[in-house]
What does this fold into?
Amino acid sequence: MNTWSDVGLDYKLMFVSVQLNYFDAAENCRNNRGQLFEPRRQSSQDKVTALVNRQFLDWTSYWIGVNDFLMEESVRGRCV
It folds into this structure.
């Protein structure tokens, strides 16, 4: 079950433990009335990265809403 978490930012985050590709992850967020995490400041990115590293020890990466689809010929989402 997906639940929203208050992690001390200006918004809540939902962590989904099912492995999804970029497009499915974005769709899952939309289906839950949200969007992929889009860090606006380095401090926000650092906070979320530290949280993932502490609470989700088996995660090696996660999707964010920033991508280079329009800049690259190949589709390649950026993971952190």
In short: The longest strand covers residues 63-67. The chain has one domain: 4-79. The chain has two helices and four strands. The beta strands are 4-6, 12-14, 63-67, 77-79.
